[in-house]
Amino acid sequence: MNKMHLKSYFDKVYFCAGARNESLVDYFESPLEFILDERMASFMALGESKMRKKIAICTTSGTAALECIPALCEAFYSGLDLTLITADRPRELIDSAAPQTIDQLNPISSFTHQQLSCESLDEVKIVKGVNHINIHLGSSLGDKDDKYIDNSLSKTLFLFSHGLDNFSELYDLIHKKTDYFYFEVLSGQSHKNIIKNERELLRLYKRGSFDSVIRVGHTPLSKLWRLLDETHLPVLHLDPRGFRGLSYGELKTLDETGIYKYLESLQITKNELTQTDYTHTQNLIEKYPQSQFAFIRELANKLSENSHLYLGNSSLIRDFEVAYHKQANFYGNRGANGIDGQLASAIGIAKNLDETLYICLGDLTLEYDLSSLAYLPENCRLIIFNNKGGRIFERVKANSKIILAHKRNYQAHASAYNLSYAHYEKANLQISTSVTELLIDAQSTLNCFKEL
After folding, report:
1. Which end of the chain is flanked by fewer CB atoms within 10 Å, N or C?
2. HSE, side-chain direction, 13 A CA sphere, residue 43
3. How far apart, in whole angstroms, are the C-alpha atoms of residue 391 and residue 404?
4. Could you count the other beta carbons within 10 Å of the beta carbon of residue 267?
């Protein structure tokens, strides 16, 4: 089967949009149907395959691929023809625990007649039965010329992510030694940062302020992590899981006590930073009162210190880092970084809290898990940031088809589950109902993001 045959081989491709497989949108000449939920799409594909159609599902990487297993299992034992195409990170990142990087072959292998791992779809041949094509997209530097941090530590950035219990103690330790540190929002210490947000962190990085990085905790969510994979500064990973999260760098697998003792032992030539002037950011947020940033800042104004907040993935979690500067207990799913099951995960957390849990989800993240609304506990307040689609893709100038733009709201869904509901179009919200929907102006948010 040649390149042109593969492009037009399928009667339909169910395309489940993501950043990793976005580059494949224009590859197929077969009709594409864009579906948010991979599990739903794969069962639709299964149904069409029963009608003797040649059907494929195309997903991004990470947990998205695993959502298709039930439908593949049914196709396998039903003797149907079905093809799964999964985008994957570069081969160099396998077993690294880099964002959205998992073993996408073995979990699915029992329900396939053919599995292929490739860098191009051009030479792929489809066999009868269930096919799984895993394509590695992009590139990574690898560890061909690994560099290690020297003993001076004069320009080393200490990047603290999530996954530990003692970030407060680590903050008390590191801020006495250097100003070159950055705590991400899920650490619960981001409100204490001298470098106030990710944008400022990236600016300092691009100016050459840092010559090395010591990463503490689980794999970071910051875009700085993607830049490090491209520019290859010396990196030391202090990770209790034993993962580098990059294709290179020195790794020390230490528990929390070991991490503290290691950082305590470091002799650091202290670099000082002038406290970031946050006035510019505040003025921009005020300029765009219907932006996601404005709603997040208003939420910070309304909630008390040490409130409990669950943050869905994608742009929301990064925008909180910009606009929510108050101490809080943050939760989120940042293992393989999928948007599946976020509401259910938050409900599980709330069952173990006496206090209120504020669940902040984007509209598409919520739609992945709408049935969990039936189980929303009384100590939960669901706050929907309705951007009318996956607007993070606008920020990276991706194919507009994968935004999955819509005009829906969620009042009827709340009513169906007898949940009290309110919605707001500007950042003057009250959080007194079980479900609060924030009608975000997508263009205002994009403009604010660009000016930031």
Report:
1. N
2. 6
3. 9
4. 8
Count of residues making up the chain:
452
DSSP one-letter code for 3: H
Residue 152, pLDDT > 80, answer: no
**Residue 282 neighbours by CB under 8 Å, 6+ apart:** none
pTM above 0.85, yes or no: yes
Q: At what angle do helices 442-451 and 279-287 cross, to 10 degrees?
A: 160
Cα–Cα dist 179/156, whole Å:
10
Q: What is the per-residue pLDDT across 327-355, written as a single tens digit (0 to 9) for each?
A: 999 999 887 777 889 999 999 999 999 99
Q: At residue 101, what is the residue type?
A: T
φ, ψ dihedrals at 386, nearest 5°: -90, 100
Q: Helix or strand or coil: residue 392?
A: helix
Q: Which two tokens mark 385?
A: 């940031």
Residue labelled with tokens 């639709």 = 44
Residue 123: other Cβ atoms inside 10 A: 12
User: Using one digit for the tens of pLDDT, what is the confidence trace for 257-267?
Assistant: 999 999 999 98
What band does 94 get if pLDDT is binned at 50, 70 and 90?
A: confident
| Residue 311 near residue 320, CB atoms below 8 Å | yes
CB of 300 closer than 8 Å to CB of 326: yes
Determine the 3-state secondary structure of 353 from DSSP: coil
- Stretch (H or E) spanning 159: strand 156-160
